[in-house]
């Protein structure tokens, strides 16, 4: 399914785009297919996410969201705003961040193949963004590689710190304000991939039961964090 124009924006309604945000890699155990352990116990913070999407942006001194050029690549300024690492102390996670777009073969979010790395959506806001959602996605697990970087993403709690490292080693701290789970066919993508509203960091992985027919997890786990300080 082709879901993006040459400028990187969704071709179809956001409600139908990027449905398989994280490809269906699966952890196999002796008992069979393991249910995704990244699913949260209870959702929280949905009103905060809605408020962020409609809130004013930061002062214009902050860097603007990257805008792809005509052939779908990124200008030099945007590439210079790419995050480099993601650290989450509560998960003992320190992962390399790769700039990714859409897999042309599947139409899915092109998460890095290695489960130890995570992917920043390069057609959206970058490290120094003053508005919109900085989206980072990662695998939960893999039959070949075991637990992924976001294996325990669903265990994050309100107030947990997430640190994004950008160009030149600069860091930016965020605080978790929401943790939600959606069916992949029902996730409100217009909120999570928005280029406007208050700046926030959006982390996405898979969740819920694994469907052996489609070889995908049914759900997406989404954690939203806002700049600290």
Automatic annotation (TrEMBL):
Gene3D superfamilies cross-referenced by the UniProt entry: Sortase
Keyword Cell inner membrane annotated: no
GO MF annotations, alphabetized: hydrolase activity
Highest taxon of the lineage: Bacteria
Keywords: Hydrolase
Keyword Hydrolase among UniProt keywords: yes
Family annotation (CDD domains): Sortase_F
Protein name: Sortase family protein
Organism annotation: Actinoplanes octamycinicus
């Amino acid at each position: 399914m082709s879901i993006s124009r040459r400028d990187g924006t969704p071709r179809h309604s956001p409600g139908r785009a990027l449905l398989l945000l994280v490809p269906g890699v699966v952890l196999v155990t002796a008992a069979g297919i393991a249910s995704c352990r990244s699913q949260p116990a209870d959702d929280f913070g949905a009103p905060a996410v809605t408020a962020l999407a409609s809130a004013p942006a930061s002062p214009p001194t902050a860097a603007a969201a990257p805008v792809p050029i005509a052939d779908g690549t990124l200008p030099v300024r945007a590439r210079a705003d790419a995050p480099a690492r993601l650290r989450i102390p509560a998960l003992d996670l320190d992962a390399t961040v790769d700039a990714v777009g859409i897999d042309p073969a599947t139409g899915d979010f092109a998460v890095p193949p290695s489960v130890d790395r995570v992917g920043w959506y390069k057609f959206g806001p970058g490290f120094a963004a003053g508005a919109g959602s900085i989206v980072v996605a990662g695998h939960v697990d893999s039959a070949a590689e075991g637990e992924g970087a976001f294996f325990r993403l669903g265990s994050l709690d309100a107030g947990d710190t997430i640190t994004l490292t950008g160009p030149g080693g600069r860091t930016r701290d965020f605080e978790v304000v929401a943790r939600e789970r959606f069916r992949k066919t029902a996730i409100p993508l217009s909120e999570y991939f928005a280029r406007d509203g208050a700046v926030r960091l959006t982390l996405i992985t898979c969740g819920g039961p694994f469907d052996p027919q489609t070889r995908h997890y049914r759900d997406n786990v989404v954690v939203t964090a806002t700049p600290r300080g």
